[in-house]
Amino acid sequence: MRIAQVAPLYESVPPRLYGGTERVVSYLTEALVHEGHEVTLFASGDSVTSAKLEAPCVEALRLDPRCQDPLAPHFFMLGQVYRRAAEFDVIHCHTTYLGLPLTQFTRTPTVLTLHGRLDIPELAPLYAEYPNVALVSISDNQRHPLPHVSWSATVYHGLPPSLYEFQPEARSSLLFLGRISPEKRPDISIQVACRAGVPLKIAAKVDKVDQLYFDTRIRPLLDHPLVEFIGEVDEQQKQRLLRNALALLFPIDWPEPFGLVMIEALACGTPVIARRRGSVPEVLRDGVTGILCETDDEMVTAVQHAARLSRVACRQEFEQRFTDNHMALRYLEVYHRCLTNRAEQEVHLQAPVPKRGAIATQREAPRLVVTRNAQATVAPSSVSAKQPMRPLVQGEGHSIRGSRNR
After folding, report:
1. C-alpha span between 77 and 8 (Å, rounded)
2. Residue 211 and residue 148 in one domain
3. Strand ranges for 66-172 from DSSP E
4. What is the C-alpha to C-alpha distance for residues 179 and 207, in angstroms, rounded to an integer?
5. Residue 319: what are its φ and ψ, rounded to 5°?
6. Do 294 and 370 belong together in one domain?
């Protein structure tokens, strides 16, 4: 299958530092290439991939001091993608709603994964306006604000199993990892760790929009002897911190769409102490891979019990539910369904209209025939042996290939 993966340009694919969406795009792209598909990745020029890279900008925009208008490169990229739409069987976008208007001008199906929060009033009428786009949620909970749009599937994020080293022995420090912001509640992590008497490492970036919050609410708390603020970390530092943590603290106070850091922790065998918000109850199994809490007191108690959770069970849960192969296979199902739906729509449009007064003969509706490594064809049930099957779209048959098991 010819697949276009369209990534945000704020971070490279994969990111050098923080960047959840771009990291997921990288894992998915590499898994699809490994499965034998022809993937073109639209991403910043400093991205590293085994797919064909198309770069509308030289480097990731967040760390580029020359970038003054980050939206302009995104619109430039999406214009390129949809101008070349006929080269792809499926266009898979990860760029929120920016490309939606362009989807109306091509036959190539668009899959749009929504990576962010959706409880914003302006989003409902916008996404409802494009029922032709297959929307993918990254958790079932994420869908709640938009129950009436064209959801195609929920696909959980996945990681390569070899990326994170399993650590069977529990360590002595807690970890807060990700981004400093009010909804992530790093202040709660600090209070919980101090009350429990357990050291806490904070490895997180501070965006410009959150700088005031960091200066006024978080920085004064960093003087405690149990708290170590590390700042933004790269992939190797992150993995080392996750492996060596007693537990990951995840006291979020917002409808988290997924929470990639939770499965990164599970891959290392590290359990997660989290609030019941957003996707958390879908990702974690309470009492098995984490401890779900509501109050600060419950989180303090959970710290005392974290070492009792099986780190082997955490790793097993990751391998059974959250690998890159699981994610790729689920997306391939979405792609195939999009192509099948488009084929059925085109068959319907091509069906002859009976002339007025003509005697209608009873015939079965055409059916779609999709075979492994074969073109999609339309075969009327009453076709004679002498009548060859014709391509679904003359000159534009698509090879729809199944996924090979690793």
Report:
1. 10
2. no
3. 90-93, 110-114, 134-137, 151-154
4. 8
5. -65, -30
6. no
Provide the residue range defining the domain that includes 372. 361-400
Contacts of 129 (CB under 8 A, 6+ apart): 100
In whole angstroms, how far apart are CA 83 and each of 55, 79, 392?
A: 15, 6, 23
361: number of Cβ within 10 Å: 7
90 and 192 within one domain: no
Other Cβ atoms closer than 10 A to 101: 12
* pTM attached to this predicted model: 0.82
Please list, in sequence order, all residues whose beta carbon lies within 8 angstroms of the beta carbon of residue 383, skipping any fewer than 6 positions away.
Answer: 389
pLDDT single digits (tens) 126-155: 999 999 999 999 999 999 999 999 899 999
Query: What is the full DSSP assignment across 255-294?
Result: --S--HHHHHHHHHT--EEEES-TTHHHH--BTTTEEEES
Q: What is the pairing mode between strands 367-369 and 377-379? A: antiparallel
- Reduced to 3 states, what is the DSSP secondary structure of residue 76? helix
| Amino acid in the structure at residue 405 | N
Q: Give the three-state DSSP class for 369.
A: strand
Whether the CB-CB separation of 249 and 299 falls below 8 Å is answered with yes
Nearest to 280 by CA among 268, 269, 270, 294: 294
Tokens of 279: 């996707």
Query: Which amino acid would we find at residue 219?
Result: R
Contact 262, 314 (CB under 8 A): no
Q: Are 11 and 62 in contact (CB under 8 A)?
A: yes
Query: Amino acid identity of 180?
Result: I
Question: Is residue 350 a part of any domain in this protein?
Answer: no
Domain boundary among 154, 187, 203: 154
What is the C-alpha to C-alpha distance for residues 104 and 108, in angstroms, rounded to an integer? Answer: 10
Does residue 53 form part of some domain? yes
pLDDT in tens, 189-206: 999 999 999 999 999 999
